[in-house]
Amino acid sequence: MKRRNTILFSLFAVAVCALFVADIAVGSVDIPLSDVAAVLTGNATDASLRSIVIDIRLVKAIMAILAGMALSASGLQMQTLFRNPLAGPYVLGVSAGASFGVALFLLGAPLLGMAAHPAMQTLGTTGAAWIGAATVLLLVLSLARRIKDIMVILILGMMLSSAIGAAVEILQYLGNEASLKSFVVWSMGSLGDVTYAQLAIIAPVILAGLALAIVSIKPMNMLLLGEEYARTMGLDIRRTRRIIFLSTTLLAGTITAFCGPVGFVGLAVPHMARMIFVSADHRTLLPASLLIGSVMMLLCDMIAKLLTLPINTVTALMGIPIVVYIVIRNRSLFR
Amino acid sequence: MITLRNITLAYGTRTLATQIYAAFGAGELCALIGRNGAGKSTLLHTIIAAESPREGEILLDGRNAASLAPDELARTIAFVGTQRIRIANLDCEDVVAIGRAPYTNWIGRMQSLDRDMVAEALRTVGMEQFAHRAIDTLSDGECQRIMIARALVQQTPNIILDEPTAFLDIPTRFEICALLSRLAHKEGKCILFSTHDIDAALPVCDSVAVIAGGSLHKYTADEVREQHIIDDLFMR
Prior knowledge:
- The complex is a heterodimer.
- Chain A has helices at residues 2-25, 33-40, 47-81, 94-111, 118-146, 150-174, 177-188, 196-215, 217-223, 227-232, 237-259, 265-277, 282-306, 311-329.
- Chain A is an all-alpha fold.
- In chain A, helix 3 (47-81) crosses helix 12 (265-277).
- The longest helix of chain A is centred in the first third of the chain and has 35 residues, at 47-81.
- Chain B has one domain: Rossmann fold, CATH 3.40.50.
- In chain B, the strands form 2 sheets. Chain B has a 6-stranded mixed beta sheet, with helices on both faces.
- In chain B, a hairpin with a 2-residue loop joins strand 9 and strand 10.
- Chain B is globular.
- The chains are: A mainly alpha, B alpha/beta.
- The interface between A and B is medium-sized, with 27 and 32 residues.
């Protein structure tokens, strides 16, 4: 089993590299792989080619990998913390919370005559998404402590998402045309609107979130047996909850802020990792989820570019069949 | 060694039992009995410091349980609960290995010493041939043995079990009680377990603690056999 997983890890690592290059090659203008390689190794002479590859496509491909890793890691952490196979940033309303924060900032603030300076737009959007995501997580988490029933928590998460969705619609209805457009564009999701300056904020935050996820590997393994057992084996439950909570907010909140609400990656990828790597050990599942998440996001990005679709429609259409398959195949998960 | 000093147990606003004084020593196997809702589970959860007593203190090997850090507590007392553990893709060996958590490093790396202990614990509970079977393919009795093995690798002098014989068929109940007896009498563990299964427990126990009528009384197994205490408890 060990050897099988080592081979699988290598295969997925190679796949990530290959898809990374392919993702740069694919777009409105197809660039031959040899030219992509030339630019990436610094041997290209054509300035416009360099500009397309470096300034547009490379950022997008890096963003795809960061988003795939971040959403998958946060999904894995939530599924373990809530001991719930259907948990994920989208299902539990974390993405909705981030949307609400952004809607309040983009739509609500202009209503009150507090139009943000363009330079503050990005920072405000990110901050609003973080606060929104953190608020919803805190709410779901405090409900989850009082209510032990998995189904009840899921239903509450869905209700919370719907309520937030309604509130966002009210803001959209009241919002003026210009701010409405910027919100709708944001909500359709995109990996491509990120600049290098923004990447300089995103990358460290995502890496910090992933570092916290790595720190929570052992606690998550202990939580497999439930909180009661984890506590009697020496786990500081409150500290663990705080770490996972912070990690998920940084990961899912940041990606939602910059790429819009991207669904089903966080839900589907950890299940794919469990199935492909036949493991429940987070020392395997976390790296596996990061790799599979990267592969899935790069693939979704390429499809989105080829068909010129918003990224979150592609992740939904790819993710939902996977989730349906897993639900049908592992019915025992839900007993 | 577990010492209860003037414990008051409460569930929500309801007081279950007051002025509990009792001591359970190394090598002692004690069955905790009482009717549903009498406070057995609450007492056990209080001893493992999952709940705090309304009043009084619990000493584990002479140290106040409330003052122990989580990892210290985990090296002093282990717990086997009533939850059914059903996790896909998790081998029995890995479940037992999680019990080494209080001793492993930040990422839970297993040294060869840890692996030896896991193998030995599996042998002790008679489950060595199940090491590489997934936990969700086991029967309830097999699963219970695995959870006991997991408690053993925690290497604690004290073990608490909440109804370890519930959901099991009659032969398996006797087997689990015999296993607990071996652990107490051969390995010198202090074991306290709640049960409704007096027939299986009484032959192997050294003592019986009875929660009834708002107080806890401890008897030797011989006293229980001779004095119709069980009849008084359940036939009233």
